[in-house]
Each structure stands twice: as C-alpha cells, then as structure tokens.
Amino acid sequence: MKPLAQSVVGNGLAPLHMASQGDHVDAARILLYHRASVDEVTVDYLTALHVAAHCGHVRVAKLLLDRKADPNARALNGFTPLHIACKKNRIKVVELLLKHGASIEATTESGLTPLHVASFMGCMNIVIYLLQHEANPDVPTVRGETPLHLAARANQTDIIRILLRNGAQVDARAREQQTPLHIASRLGNVDIVMLLLQHGAAVDSTTKDLYTALHIAGKEGQEEVKYLVGRRIMDHIDTVHLIERFWRKRQESLARPAMVAAVLLEHGASLTATTKKGFTPLHLAAKYGNMKVAKLVLQRDAPVDAQGKNGVTPLHVASHYDHQNVALLLLDKGASPHATAKNGHTPLHIAARKNQMDIATTLLEYGAKANAESKAGFTPLHLSSQEGHTDMSTLLIEHQADTNHKAKNGLTPLHLCAQEDRVNVAAILVKNGAQVESITKAGYTPLHVASHFGQGNMVRFLLQQGGDVKASTNIGYTPLHQASQQGHTTIVNLLLENAAQPNSVTSEVTLSVTGPCGINRRVHQVPVGAAARAQGTRFDVCAEID
C-alpha cells in the first residue's frame, strides 16, 4: 500500500505534482520527508519536475533536483523537463536543469531536441543559451527537419538569424528533400527568404518531386495552411496555441508569393526548372490561379507554352482549374489555344470536359477550334456530350462544332451520350442535326450502345427519334442482341414492343445459339463496350495536371 504522501487521483497526479504546480516548496519538502516518490508519474508519465518546469517554478524544481529527481525523465511523448521548459520559455528552469545534468540533445518520440522546441516557439534567450552550451543546430527529427526548418515553419526570422550565425546548415534537407528555403517560400515570408539566400541557400534546390522554391512560391502558400492547422508539427504543443501562433504570424507577415518570387528571381531562380511532371513555375502559378507570380515570370520571358511531360501547357492547367484571369493573361502573352497534350487534347477539350464555361468562351474568342481532334479523333463536343454538359455542348455547337463528327473508331457525340444516358444533351445534338443512325466502323448505332449499357431513357428517346430497332452491325448484331447479351430485360421488352425481331441471327458461324434470346450464353463479349470506351474518351489528361 502506498504512503498517503503518494496517493493519486484518476489522472495520476500525486500530492507532490500538486505542490509543484502551485510552487509550494514547504509542502513539497514535507511530502518528500514522508517518503513521497520524487519521480512519481501521471498517466502521461509526467513527473513533478515536468510540472515545475511547465509552470516555471525554479524553487520547487531545485528542491526536486536536490532530492535526486531525474532531469531526463521522459513523458509519454518523449518530452523531458527541459523540452517543456523550452516550450514554455522558462529560461531560469532551463539553466537549472542543465546545471543538474539534463541532456541538451535529448529527443522526443518524433526526434525533437530542446533546440527544435525553442526554435519553433521563438524563445530567443533559450535558443542562445542552448547554442552557448553546444546544442547541435543540425540534429534532424524523424522527418529530417532541423531547428532551422521548424523556425522557418513558424516564421521565426530572428531565430533563423541566430541559428545561421551559429553554423546551422542553410540547405539542410528534410525527408522529402525540402530545405528551409522551400518552407519559407511556401509561407510567403520574404524576410526569411532573403535571409536564407544571403547565407548561401541554393535558389534552385529541388524537393523530391523536383519543386524549386520558385515553383512553390507560385502555389501561394495555401497547402501550408492546411498542413499546419491539420497537423501538430510538434509533440504536445496545444493545437489551439499552434493555430493562434500561426495566424498571428500569418497576419504579421501575410503570404506574399509575388514578392518571394521576385527575390528568388533576383537571385537567379530558373524560369524553366521542371517538377517530376515537367511543370515550370508558370504551370504552378496557373494551377493555383496566382496572377501576380504569373505576371512576374512572364515579364521575365518565361516560356508561355512550356509543355509538361504529358504535353500540357500552362493554358491547359489554367483551363482545368477554371482560372480565367490567368488564362486571359496567358492568351494575351501569346499562349496558343491550339496547343495539344500528348493525347491531342487542347485546352478547349479540358474546358469542355470540366464544364468551364467562361474559360471555353474565352478560348473560342481567341480562336480555339471547336472541331479540334484528339489523337483518337475526339472533339470537345464528344467530351461535353459524354459528361452531359448541356450549356457547354450548346456553346460548342454555336461555334460550328460538328454534331456528326466521327472519332477514328467511328463514335459520334451521340454515341457517347447513349453510353452515359445523357438524354438532355442528346436532344440538343439531334435538334442540331445529329444523325440517329450514325454508325461506327464496326456498324454500331447509338441505339446499339444504349441497349448494351442498359440505358432505358436513351433507348426510348432514340426510338422516338426514329432509331432503327432492326439495325445490324457488320457481323449482324442488332440492339436486341446487345440488350440480351447483357441481360437488360427492360430493354429487351422495350425493343420487342417496338418490332425488334426475336429470331434475327448474326453472321457469326461459331455460335451454337445465334438468336438474340440465346446470346447470353456466348463465351466472349460483343465489342461495343470496348468501342464505346475506346482509348481517348476517358484518357485523364486532368490527372496529369492534379
């Protein structure tokens, strides 16, 4: 049974913890006299010395240390009393702990040293004191971050200056090869960017994904907001405190990506450096809608039609993300509205698929071709039809888009509508001359496609528009064959009600049962599915942009 002096409450706090919290030296002395354990821990493995360090109570801390309290006791997250004193800016406690043997290089579970903590929290006097006592400024955390990285994350300009003066490596690399310059550029802190460059930071140093600081400046810092608020950088730093500190610093030094970009360019940052996806800084400015950075790099003759690894230009990117102002800027600076990605998609293809009306209107005003073909022969109207975008399809038709344009496999926009049951767009296409009986190279009509995919509404629409229920492909398949093959009973009944022939046969001689009602027993599939989903209709050039 524990002595009364060591009795604890539910969270593990012993009387000695309470006395330490209140700086009650005499009470603590009495408890120790009555055999209270000097290193008794709470459920979080906090000792009375942790508590005294947190509160900055030097007298109680000295008493505990004189009674052989462990100066290197580790809490559940690995924080020692020294870490906590650094976090709370308790310089007197820091001095006391180091005099009593506290390890200056002790690390938490995530690899934080006391210097990491003091640097992030902006505790100038403690940082100086730790460095004077030979704290290593280049110790990496588990994620590879040095105190300099954390000071950059917290916008601690003065701390960074002290660390650099004491030999911190300016281009230290974290796990994803990020340097402090990358971090400062992301946060838009011009003073820190300039300070790092003055100390020799490599302006074109790249991350794991080959991002330079200039690429990152074009992203306007929004990802860092999400990162900092959504994740606690340091163990045991209160989330509320972190958010308050971050936003206070954010207000003091708002993200100024254009100013950062200007500083980087003055120090020779490359306008043509590319990420793993082949993106230049202009691509990144287009992706994030950063007009100021886009203007700045264009003023310095950044290549306006630079292509990523899959051929996408900044205009493709701006079109994908619906950044009309950037798109206008690019077009005014000579960007080609006809530029094609490796699959042949133009910016108009992307705008059509994404239903970016304003971008599409702008592109058409600058001469984009409504009938531009991808490598597979698909036009923007094919894509808007497949996605069911009525206004976009109407806009393209108003600019002379061909409603009967055939891709290389013969698919028209109406075929793709039939595949996806886009009746509203199909009505617009038919009203503007789309042929209901248009056939692919293999002889499939839109009714074949709708029957194959079980699109009841589309089957009814096509029949109402005069779709031929008896139309047959090159090898004799009717819409009834397609519906029967896929087991679409509702479509089968609908077709039969409209005079489909249940005994029509294909020209294939390998089938043991060739009538529509027996087609389900076929070993292989009728190729309409592959035809309707042919390469190019669903090629995701947008995935290369994201």
TrEMBL record:
Against SMART domains, the record matches this protein to: ANK
Q: Which residues cross the membrane?
A: none
InterPro entries linked to this entry: Ankyrin_rpt, Ankyrin_rpt-contain_sf, E3_Ligase-Neurotoxin
Q: Which domain of life is it from?
A: Eukaryota
MF terms per GO, please? cytoskeletal anchor activity; spectrin binding; transmembrane transporter binding
One short Pfam family name for this protein? Answer: Ank
ANK repeat residues: 11-43, 44-76, 77-109, 110-142, 143-175, 176-208, 277-309, 310-342, 343-375, 376-408, 409-441, 442-474, 475-507
Keyword tags? ANK repeat
Cleaved signal peptide residues: none
Q: Which GO terms describe its biological process?
A: protein localization to plasma membrane
Gene Ontology cellular-component terms for this entry are:
neuron projection; plasma membrane
Protein name, as recorded: Ankyrin
Write down the species: Timema tahoe
